[in-house]
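Anyone able to model this chain together with 6CS?
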Amino acid sequence: MSLNKLFKATLSAAAIFAVAGTAAQAEEWKFAHEESPGDVQDLYAQEFKRLVEEKTNGDVTVTVYTYGQLGTENDITELTTAGAVQFSNASPGHLGTFVPEIQVFGVPYLLSQDNEVNKEVLSGSPTIYDGLSKDFESKGLKLYTMYPEGEMVWTTKKKVTQPSEFDGVKFRVMTSPILIESYESFGADPVALPWGEVYSGLQTSVIDAQVNPIFFIESAKFYEVTDYLIYAGQQQYTTTVVSNAAFYDGLSDERKEMLKEVKAELDDFIYEAQEKANAEALDRIKKAKPGIEVIKLDDEQRAAFKKASAGIGDSLVSEVGGDTEEVLNALRKEFGTEM
Ligand code: 6CS
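re: yes, here you go
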């Protein structure tokens, strides 16, 4: 054997040991999400854990990390790109500086008012899984799935039924830049913060309002420090689950197939789970704080906010460029919300 061949043989043996070593350790998959125990993302992650462990006969164990255990929303995305965690929730509301194209989901009134339509599009749309997924790949992430968590509801200290009433209202939004522009267009003064700072911000009047699905407003207790729940119909909370791209690409075909099956089962599971979580949370909020005023804006009132924010899609297209226009138009068609 030539020295060169011996060197190569030694190298491949070392590589096999290294890979075998990595594979043995990678049998623990870490899944970090952005919410508290029992919240919608936790229900998803726990069911993912149960199914993966069952389908691999325990060869893979999944460890779930809730919000704060590994950092804030943006921290867990970074940990996923670095390969320190294998799966995480990365919601469009917080992902804008990392995968700017995903901010299309922050464009007001993009999603349907019919949540069955939203479920169908989010779980299987070619625009998402063939198109947008490439924007994730270029950042070292594999887009695993996307699901809705419920209608975004404004919680405010003062009644707001038209854009002019937002004047001077410091409105907390998630950290994606498009959300700042959207709430400016509605007439508010937006402030981007991680959610861990929202309760105290409302309590101390650093902010006067925020927006989230009902289950989260109850679980994070934002209703305790606000007086109105306002349904403006402008957005559904959507989230993506991503995995580290190199980790995913290195999985066997069998494991990839198993993950596809898990995704399909969870598409139905999470849709029902979030509907139930939101309905039950609203009942509990009303019981805990009977004085809270629940306002559903009528079509005319909603039209005023829709009109005020009509240019947001175009600004996103000009700021982000690339395939954003194509993605936005295709999604509007799929959700049935063409302008
Ligand atoms: O408002 C937020 O930032 C948080 N809201 C929800 C529903 N999930 C996680 C996210 O970070």
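The chain has a mean pLDDT of 92.
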